[in-house]
Specification:
globular, 5 strands, five-stranded parallel sheet, about 30% helix, 4 helices
Amino acid sequence: MLESRGYHVTSVLGNDKAFGLDAAVIAAADLIVIGFSAPYPVRAAMIHWFKQQYPNIPVVAQRFHSAESFPEADGGNVSDDPHVWLMAVAPQKINIRLQLTTYN
């Protein structure tokens, strides 16, 4: 859906592949989305890593249920709708060219 609207999307399945991405690819991202399929501790660790390594890139965490909380994330939602993810960080500047990187 995002690609059809002109956004550039890089999707990675699994933390090892996410950590293996070229640093320039990650640094060029305007938004990072952490998927909800991994266990909570794994997702929390991913958020922490991204916020430590790339503090200026907003991180949105998909929550498995509404009771989950990711204090280090810039936003979070239980929705699968990418537009909802974008609204989670709407107060922050998101460039017209968006690279949405998903980690599950």
